[in-house]
Design a protein that fits this description.
Blueprint: H1 2-17, H2 25-38, H3 40-51, H4 61-69, H5 72-93, H6 101-109
Helix pairs in contact: 1-2, 2-3, 3-5, 5-6
Length: about 110
């Protein structure tokens, strides 16, 4: 079972993110974590909006090049704010989800340095 779970995350998240090609480990961990939480397309679109590439939700050469050349601290700050903004938008659409906000914010801050 453990191997099946590992393969699931590898094929559903790590490989589509091209995780091995992202230079900073904290950055890739943060993107991976948010992809599992919010979906890979949403996560990658947020990354693309930060790095200034077409937000199509697919990691390509331009996204990787811009992400890997961007200042790590800047990216982490922008990505953290984007994630928190996303969680707030979820609550605006469905107020019953407010009970999850604290946990979501803690999760968003986990990779912020």
């Amino acid at each position: 079972m453990e191997k099946q779970v590992e393969l699931f995350y590898l094929y559903e998240f790590w490989l589509p993110l091209k995780g091995d090609l992202i230079a900073n480990q904290v950055t890739v961990d943060s993107i991976f974590d948010f992809s599992v939480n919010a979906g890979i397309r949403t996560s990658v679109q947020f990354v693309q909006s930060i790095v200034g590439t077409k937000a199509d939700g697919i990691v390509g050469e331009q996204t990787l090049q811009k992400l890997n050349s961007l200042d790590f601290g800047y990216f982490q700050s922008a990505f953290t704010v984007t994630k928190i903004t996303h969680y707030i938008s979820i609550i605006k659409k469905r107020p019953a989800n407010k009970k999850y906000l604290y946990g979501w914010i803690i999760r968003a801050l986990e990779y912020h340095s």
